[in-house]
Amino acid sequence: MVEFLIRKCAQIARYVPGKSVEEVKRRYGLKKVIKLASNENPYGPSPRAVEAFRSYSDLHIYPDPEYRELREKIAEYTGWSYDRIVVAAGVDGILETLFRLLVDEGDEIVIPTPTFPYYHILTRLHCGREVLVKRSDDGYRVDESIFDAISGKTKLVIICSPNNPTGNVESAKLVRELAESTGGVVFLDEAYVEFADRSIDVDADNVIVARTFSKAFGLANLRIGYALLPEWLVELFKAASTPFPISTPAERAAIAALEDIEWMFGCVEKIRAERERIYRELQRFVEVNPSQANFLFFKSPIENLAEELMKRGVIVRDCSNFVGCDRHIRVSIGKPEENDMFLDALKEVLG
């Protein structure tokens, strides 16, 4: 009966997030555990954002459906056109609405691998056809082979930059040429853009740029994403979106975070410095990819490295279930003392 009810294309594996601190403490009987698995800002959000969230009490009233004040602040921060900005529950929420709006059964979704697993889940859930493109062996960049994957059935080309889990950025030239090569939409996921040396500045009638407050701004628990859409898509997107996708307390926190932008920049500066330090240390033990995000990606020389690190109180992301990965590990950049604990555990495991 259940098999009859569920759509055939919805036979999917669930997205598996990193393990929680409490789960690992219980499993191994540990008192101290650090989590470097979910690319969170270890310093948290601006205190002003926390206060703005806590001070809102009209919880019986629905949010402003247009999110005017937040969109105005985002426009100031990004330089984007206010009228073309939309908000949703994280970048995931932006993508969910776009899939609901754009993807018909059999439409092709071009996905360079390895990348964020949720792209694959959404494609399968909407009965789309994945067209997977292997990234280059030289730094995991998207190379010219992606153009061979584009066809008349291509509805979406998804580019993550900096890419999760590899950490590399793509070029504006690539995105521009992709937009010119397809009759579909190029979706640019810039969730980690604040940690990078550059963003991708391409404005075309078939390019969507999505960002989030989850990473650099430290508001992951509030699920606040936003995007710049082409003019023709804005009203259609709003019609297809979940009503009131983010709460007013979350909106207030995001506004306060943008009003205290120096806090975020300070966090980013510290994370970048630690990223480069840990990168240099890792090069002594493993083959690690240079990163423009708040994490590092490397191939483990042994099996079950993530499990061995957990036994020592360090949670990292085992990427072996990411399409295109093998014994790969992604480690988020934490505070200096957390990063030292990770390095000590790694040295102990690898000898």
Break the fold down into its secondary structure elements and pairings:
Blueprint: H1 2-5, H2 21-28, E1 34-35, H3 47-55, H4 68-78, E2 85-88, H5 90-102, E3 108-113, H6 118-125, E4 129-134, H7 146-149, E5 154-160, H8 172-181, E6 185-189, E7 207-212, E8 225-228, H9 231-240, H10 248-259, H11 261-282, E9 287-289, E10 295-299, H12 305-311, E11 314-315, E12 317-318, E13 328-332, H13 336-350
Parallel strand pairs: 1-11, 3-4, 3-5, 5-6, 6-7
Antiparallel strand pairs: 2-8, 7-8, 9-10, 10-13, 12-13
Helix pairs in contact: 3-10, 4-10, 5-6
Structure description:
By secondary structure, this protein is α/β, with parallel strands linked by helices. It has two domains: 2-44 and 262-350, Alpha-Beta Complex (Aspartate Aminotransferase, domain 1); 48-260, 3-Layer(aba) Sandwich (Aspartate Aminotransferase, domain 2), CATH 3.40.640. It has 13 helices and 13 strands. The protein has helices at 2-5, 21-28, 47-55, 68-78, 90-102, 118-125, 146-149, 172-181, 231-240, 248-259, 261-282, 305-311, 336-350, and strands at residues 34-35, 85-88, 108-113, 129-134, 154-160, 185-189, 207-212, 225-228, 287-289, 295-299, 314-315, 317-318, 328-332. The strands form three sheets. The protein has a seven-stranded mixed β-sheet, with helices on both faces. The chain has a four-stranded antiparallel β-sheet with strand order 9-10-13-12, covered by helices on one side. Helix 6 links the parallel strand 3 and strand 4 (129-134). Helix 3 runs antiparallel to helix 10 (248-259), helix 4 packs parallel to helix 10 and helix 5 runs parallel beside helix 6. It is globular.
